Amino acid sequence: MNGQSRADIRPGLEVDIVLKQDQATGKLTRGIVKDILTNSPRHPHGIKVRLQDGQVGRVKRITG
Q1: What's the rounded Cα separation, in Å, for the pair 64 and 53?
Q2: What pLDDT shows up at residue 27?
Q3: Is 31 in a helix, a strand, or coil?
Q4: Would you state the pLDDT for residue 25?
Q5: CA dist list (Å): 60 to 3, 21
Q6: What mean pLDDT do residues 41-64 have?
Q7: Tens-place pLDDT, residues 1-35
Q8: Is the dihedral of CA 30, 48, 39, 34 positive or negative?
Q9: E-strand spans in the chain?
Q10: Separation of alpha carbons 37 and 25, rounded Å
Q11: By CB count within 10 A, which of 7, 11, 46, 60 is most buried?
Q12: What integer pLDDT is reported at residue 21 of this predicted model?
């Protein structure tokens, strides 16, 4: 599942995100969602989230 729809994402989900500094390479970082930062229901580049470890990025894939 991709991370473009806010309704699909909730705190506690395991996701793969792309961090701002990794956007050029597309390197993914896996973590657990702590906060959802995007207010709109959809975003073409992925919903922005904060992981439990504090990293912020856009969801590219929902893994669990």
Answers
A1: 17
A2: 97
A3: strand
A4: 96
A5: 5, 15
A6: 96
A7: 789 999 999 999 999 999 999 999 999 999 999 99
A8: positive
A9: 14-19, 28-36, 48-51, 56-62
A10: 23
A11: 46
A12: 96
Question: In angstroms, what CA-CA distances link 28 with 12, 18, 24, 46, 57?
Answer: 18, 5, 11, 13, 10
Q: What angle do CA 58, 28, 1 make, to 5 degrees?
A: 65
Tokens coding 34: 């702590």
Q: In this predicted structure, what is the pLDDT of residue 1?
A: 76
In whole angstroms, give the CA distance from residue 40 to residue 42. 6
The CA distance from 57 to 23, in Å, is 9
Q: Closest by alpha carbon to 18, among 5, 34, 2?
A: 2
